[in-house]
Amino acid sequence: MSARPGFYRQELNKTVWEVPERYQNLTPVGSGAYGSVCSAYDVVLRQKVAVKKLSRPFQSLIHSRRSYRELRLLKHMKHENVIGLLDVFTPAATLEDFNELYLVTNLMGADLNNIVKFQRLSDEHVQFLIYQLLRGLKYIHSAGLIHRDLKPSNVAVNEDCELRILDFGLARQTDDEMTGYVATRWYRAPEIMLNWMHYNQNVDIWSVGCIMGELLKGKVLFPGTDYIDQLKRIMEVVGTPTPELLKKICSEHFFVSLLAVDLLKRMLVLDCDGRISASEALSHPYFSQYHDPDDEPEAQPYDQTLESKDRTLEEWKGKFVLAKPTEAVWRVLSLDLCLGLFFHRCQIIL
């Protein structure tokens, strides 16, 4: 079967990709449980982009809801330090064939996980990176959201040291009932491991503290081998005097400022209600050379009502379209007008 008009097919890592001709030079860059990502060159925007193919977006009700939520969250995010949506498309010709979904975002290059493996960062670099991370997190939290999966591999940095937060697959609103099985264990807040069902946005602050400590130390701060070992390692550090914490984070060959240690102490607090917020952390003296209240914007509240209802698989598919298609070609509507895939004269509005 040939590709749709305006599309072409390419097999990558035993997976067939069918994308618009505007996206050239597809190159695999990563994969996970919920999709695969390729870099590509957008001949329209004349820049490199990241194209994510969602893995079986309508395989089940859970997959369908997740796909819809991820698309809406990416559309909602409009911030320099948070990944946003450039484009969305599918090669399907009819609603019945609508089984694949592709998302296009900025291509960011390396993530913090790769960076910390190969180089030791100076205190100045850590300041700038963590400031951007908290700036983006303030924006996410102001929308009423919790990321829940902050870790070095979900934080991307380009060659200019510009940072963006990635992957909203586990994001939830603050009033949702939560599950404990989120986030990589090493960056997971204690209350998540203890399976508290109503934790708050400060679980993300704990994760930022773990990331910051790793950047400063050059090693994972709490590399637990299981839940019990993870909690044990946390208890060995949190709550001890500042010199002990400093000794834990620093090596004899590397200096960490006392301001950095003070900020870490405020983020790595066992009582989640006692942790510093993202907004408060931005005004900490550690970031004095970057902090600008007028350049740390907040988001519009995120409305989850459209994705919180129970629907059948076909109803979830239908949420991506406004009406039954009358033409056999999908196109992409300008994101300046609204988000969505659409058949000719048939839009998908989220």
The helix/strand series, from N terminus to C terminus, equals: EEEEEHEEEHHEEEEHHHHHHHHEEE
| CATH topology assignment of the largest domain | Transferase(Phosphotransferase), domain 1
Strand order of the largest sheet: 3-4-5-7-6
First-residue to last-residue Cα separation: 31 Å
How many distinct beta strands?
15
Q: Output the structural class.
A: alpha+beta
Largest sheet: 5 strands, antiparallel
Regarding CATH, which class of the largest domain? Mainly Alpha
Count of all domains: 2
Proportion of β residues? 15-25%
The average pLDDT value, as a whole number, equals: 81
Shape: globular
Radius of gyration: 21 Å
CATH architectural label of the largest domain: Orthogonal Bundle
Helical element count?
11
- The CATH homologous superfamily name of the largest domain equals Transferase(Phosphotransferase) domain 1
What percent of the residues sit in helical stretches (DSSP H or I)? 25-40%
Key phrases:
350 residues; Phosphorylase Kinase, domain 1; Transferase(Phosphotransferase), domain 1; 3-stranded antiparallel sheet; 31% helix; disordered C terminus; ATP-binding; serine/threonine-protein kinase; EC 2.7.11.24; nucleotide-binding
